[in-house]
Amino acid sequence: MTRMKSIVLYAEDEENDALLMRLAFAKEGLAEVFHRVSNGQAAIDYLSGTGAYADREQHPEPGVMLLDLNMPEMDGFDVLKWIRAHPLHHELPVVVFSSSVREEDRARARVLGANDFVVKPNSGALFREVARKLKERWLDAGGVKAGDQ
Amino acid sequence: MGAGLVALARGRRGSSYFGLAVCLIDLVPLVGFAYHIEGFYDRSRPTVISGPTVIALIVLGTGLALARPAHGPMVVLWRKDAGGRLFRQWLPLVVLVPLAVGFLAAQGWHRGFYDPEFGAGMLVLALVVIFTGLLWQSAARLSMLERAERRTKEELSELSQRLSYHVTHSPLAVIEWGPEMRLTRWSKEAERIFGWRAEEVLGKRMEDFRWSYDEDRPRVSKVSGNLQIGTDPKRFSANRNYRKDGTIVHCEWYSSSLHDEGGKLRSILSLVLDVTERNRAEAALRRSEERYRTLFDTLIEGFCTVEILFDADGRPVDYRFLEVNPAFEKHTGLHQAQGKSMRDLAPDHEALWVEILGKVALTGEAAHFESEAKARGCHYDLCAYRVDGPESRKVAILLNDVTGRKREQETRARLAAIVESSEDAIIGKDLDGMITSWNAGAEHLLGYRADEVIGQPIKRIIPPELQAEEAAILARVRRGESVAHLETARLTRDGRLIPASMSISPIRDAAGAIIGVSKILRDITARKEAEESLRESERLYRAIGESIDYGIWICDAAGRNTYASESFLKLVGMTQEECSRFGWADVLHPEDAEATIAAWKYCVEKGGPWYREHRYRGCDGQWHPILACGVAVRDERGRITRWAGINLDISRLKRAEETLRESERQFRMLADSIPNLAWWADGDGYITWYNQRWYEYTGTIPEQMEGWGWQSVHHPEMLTKVLARWKASIASGEPFEMDFPLRGADGRYRWFLTRIIPLRDAAGKAVRWFGTNTDVTEKREAEEVLERGKEKLEGLVAERTAKLQELVGELEHFSYTITHDMRAPLRAMRGFAEVVEELCAQCPGEQQKIFLRRIITAAERMDLLITDALNYSKAVRQELPLAPVDVGRLLRGMLDSYPEFQSSQAEITVEREMPLVLGNEAALTQCFSNLLGNAVKFAQPGRRAEVRVLSELKDGWVRLWVEDNGIGISASMMPRVFDMFSRRQGAQAGTGIGLALVRKVADRMGGRVGVESEPGKGSRFWVELRPGDARRAPHGPGDMAEPA
Question: CB–CB of B503/B485 below 8 Å?
Fold first, then answer.
C-alpha cells in the first residue's frame, strides 16, 4: 500500500488561470493540495520525479491531474498519451480542463483516456466549484481507476 | 492306535474313529496333569503314562483322524457348507476355552484364591456361555438355511411351471423316456401329431404300440440304442411314424440323452417336428422343377434369367445372365452367355433394355415390350418379370425374335401411310363393284368417310350418264387389263360433279387370281381451271396489248414478225402481211434504220434481250419515237421458239426529257454561281455531279471526283469519321450535317459545314442526295478564340474559388481561434475582478464596488457574445444530418434541464401532441433555447413570462409557434429582427446573435422562420420545418441524429 496520494497536479501555461485556480483552492482551504506545473514537459518531469521534481517529499505523487489542452510544445493530448502508456502512472485519473468547446477536442480526450472533461468557467465562484468537486470526487473518494467514466 | 493304522492302510472308515478315540483317551491324563487330578494318572493304576507320551499320542491320534478327510466324522470338519464352517469356527473354542477356564479354576483353587465350589461354578458358567453361543449360532444358521431352502423350492416350482408351460405349448412335440425306455412325457403337440393321448401311451415302451414305421424301424432302434448307451448323446434323425389312425407322418427328431455319474441312463428327451407337409411340398417342388427344366430346354421362345446390376446410386447399368435356354442362344446368337454380363457380350447394347429390366427388378411389375437390338439388326418381343423376390434383383425374360413380323408390319405400315397420305383418292373394290377400301384422299376428294362407303356399291360416286363406262372398265379389268389416266368425272357427297383423272389396275390374290380392282382418282379441277385461266389470260394480255400505244409484237425464231398490234399497223399504215415481210424496216427514220436492223439481226443471232429506241414515220408524215423492248421465248430445252415484246410511244417522254434537260441546265448555272460547293449523289451515295465552285476550290477535274473520288481532298485524320457518318446517313436515309476540312487547290485545308439532304421517292426512300459545303473557317476561328477565352476564364474562376475557399477556411479558423483565445483574458478579467470584489466587500468606497461590478458585467456580456458567435460559426460550418425529431420530447427535456426555464422564473407550456419534424436534434435545441430564452428574457417588467409552444400543419409544413406575453417588437425593428447584431431594447439586451442563429439553423435544416408581434402585447415566433413522418425512420449512420 503506497502512501495516500492526496494532491492535485494542475498543468497550465496560462498564468491567470493558474492563479485563479490556486486562489480557488485556497478559498476552499485546500492550498496544500494544489501543485501546478507550467507546461506539458514539466508535467511529465513531475510525474517521472526527475530534474527539479526529484524530491518526492516536496513534490509528492498526485492523486489526480487537472490538464489544460492548449500548451506550447507539448500539449495536453501528448501528456495524456504519455500517462496512459506509462507503466506506473497509466491509472492516474486525468481531468481535462480546457476552454475549448469543440466537440472534436472532447471526443479526442475521451478516446485518449481522459476520465472527465471540464470546460473552463468564466467566474471565480465556478473555479472554486471545480476545485471542490475535484477534491471530493478524486481525492476523498480514493479515486477511480483510469478509464472509468 | 494300531487298529486305526490298519484301518487306514486298508482304506476303511474306522481309522478316523480310532484316531479320535486315542485323542480322547490321552486327553484324560493331560487334563489330569493340568489340573493335578492324580486319579487321572495314578502311577498305581495300569493306565499310568508320562506327559510327553500323552502329547505324542494326541498328535498321532489327530493326524490319524485327519488322514482321510473325506470319510468318517472328519467329513463334517472339511465341508464347505454352513455346518463345516460352524464346526471349524467353534472347534478351537470348544476345546480351548473349557481347558483354559478349568486351568484357571484349578490354579485359583490350589493357590487358595477361592474354594473348589467357586471354581466349579465358574467352569459351569463358562461352559453355559460357550454352549449357549454355539446353540445360538447353530439356530441362526439353521433358520437361514431353511429360508434359503424355501426360496429355492419356490424358484424350482416356478421353473418347473415355466418348463411345463413351454413343453405344453411348444410347436415341437416333447417326448421323454425314463431309464427303462418307458414314455414319461407326451406333450399336447405329440398328441396332435401322433393322435394318441398322453394317458394312452405314458408308461409304455416304443414297441408296445404300432408307432414306428416298419421300414424305418432298424434305423430308429440303432439311434435309440446309441442314445441309451450314451455314445451319441445328441442326435438328429428324420423318419416316418404311424399315427393312431394308421396314417404315416414324417417327423424330424431332435433327441438328447441324460446319464448319471455312473453312466446309467436317466432320461431321453426328444423334440419332434411334423414335416409331412414340407416333405410333400418339396416333392411337389422337385416335380415342378423337373417340369420347368423340360419346358426351359424345349421352349421355342428364348428364355433366360438375369441378375440386374446397379451402380452406386441404385441405377440399373447392366445385367448378368444366370441361365439361358437353348432357344435363347438361337434367337440372340449369344453363345455361352451364362455368367456373363450383357455389356461384356454386346457393349453397344440398348440402354432401354437395361432401364426396363431394372424397373422390373425394382418394382416387381412385369413388362412386355418390343425393342430392337441394333447390333444384330433384329427386333425382339420381350416379356420380363421379377423372380425370387425384391432382394434378388433377378428377372426372367421370355424373348421372341419378331424381326420378320416387324419388317412385314413396317412394309405394310409404309404402304398404308403412302395410301393414307396420298392426295389422290385410292379406292379398292371387288369384282362386283362393292367398295373394299377408301383412303383419306378419297374422303377428302369425294366427301364420304370410309365407314360410310366400305361395303357400298361404287355406283354411288359415278354420275348416271357414266355408269356404262364403269361396266366397261370392270370388264377390262376382269380380263387383267389396266387403264391409265382416263379422264372422267365423279360425284361428291354433296352432289358436285368433279373432273377426275382415273387409273385402274386389277388386284390379285397370292395365286394370281383377280379378286378386285384398285382405282386411283386424281382431282383435275385445278388443271382444268388453269387451262381455262390460261386462255383467259391470253385474251387479257392481247386486250392490254391493244390498249397501249403501239401494242405488242411477236416474231418467230428467225426474227420475222408474225403479229403486230392493230395500233402499230394503223400508225405506220401497213397490213400484217406487209409487216411480216419486214415492211417495218422501210418506215424507220433513215438515221436509225441501218443501226436498228443490224442490232435486230445481232439480237436474234445472240438471243439477247431487245431494247431500242427508234423513230417510225407515221401515216401523218411525222416521226414517232418508239421504244421497242422484247425477249426471246424459249421452250423447255432452252431453244428460242419466238420473240415477243412491246412498242412504247415515248414521244411525251422525249418532250419531258427535253424540258428536264433545260431545267437542269438552269439549275447548274445557278449552282455554279453560288459561293458554296454543291453536288448530287445517287441513292447509294455515288456522286454524279459537282458544281463549278467545287472544281475551282479543290483544283480537281470531274474524272478525279466522280463517285467516291472526293475522298482525296479530305484530311486523312477526319476521313474515317466522315465516311462512317456519310455511310450511316445513306443506310438510314437521315440528313447529314458535319464540319470537316477540305483541301483547297493551294494545298491548304479550310473548314466546311457540310449539309446533305435526301430526295425521297413516294415510298420515302432516299433516291438522291443533294449536298452543299459552306466555308466556315472564319466562323470556327472566331469560335476557337472564344472557346480559349472561356477556358481561361473558367481556370481563373476555379483558381479564385479555391483561393476564396482557402481564405474562408482561414477566416473560420481565425474567427474560432480569436473567439476562443479572447475568452482567456476575459476569464482572467472577470475572475480577478471577482477576487477584488470579494476582498473589497468589507472596505468602504461604494464607487469602487460599482466600477468592479461594471467590469464583471462587461466581461460576462463579452463572454456571452463570444459564446453566441462561436455557436453561430458552428451552425454555419457543421454538418447537419436530418432525421425525424420528436419536438415535444425535446422541449420537455429542455424545460427539465435548463434552470432559466423552470416554472419559478417563467411559465412555459408545451402543447401535448407535437408532430415529428425532419430536423437535427442539436440544431433544434439551439433554436428553441434561443427562442424560449428570448421569451423569458423580454418579459414585461414586473410580470411573469407566460410562454406557449404550439404546432400547426400548413401546406405540407409543420409550423412551430413560440408565443409570449412579453414586451413585443417595435414595427421599425421587425424587418431586422433576424439580422446579425440586431438587438431589442429591454431590461436584458441580448448579443444580437441569438435570432440570427435561429434563422441560420432553420435554413440549414431546409426550414423557415418568422415572427408576428405587437409591441406591449407579446411576440409569436414561428419555425417551419418538413414533417418527420414523410421520411422513413432513421436506419443508417447517415440518417442518425448527431449525438446531443
Answer: yes
